[in-house]
Design goal:
- By secondary structure, the protein is mainly α.
- It has one domain.
- Helix content is 74%, strand content 0%.
- It has two helices and no strands.
Length: 77
């Protein structure tokens, strides 16, 4: 990783932190500020962050669906 890396320990990672880091990686790559030597590391980290965000979104969606179902069940009783 480059010295500028903001890699957060996984237990402290939130969706917002992961998304912000993804935006920073994308900007670095778009601005050609990433050397060839670091590019693979950045892409690997981006892949990890994308996977984390997808899992977090799916989990949140399932939780919200469950809450809505509970609310609908209570309102029909």
């Amino acid at each position: 990783m480059s010295p500028k890396s903001s890699k957060v320990p996984s237990e402290d990672l939130t969706y917002e932190i992961a998304f912000q880091e993804l935006k920073e990686i994308a900007l670095d790559i778009e601005n050609d500020s990433v050397t060839v030597d670091v590019l693979a590391e950045k892409v690997k980290r981006a892949s990890e962050l994308i996977q984390f965000c997808q899992i977090k979104l799916r989990s949140t969606e399932a939780e919200i669906s469950s809450i809505i179902k509970q609310m609908e069940t209570k309102s029909t009783n």
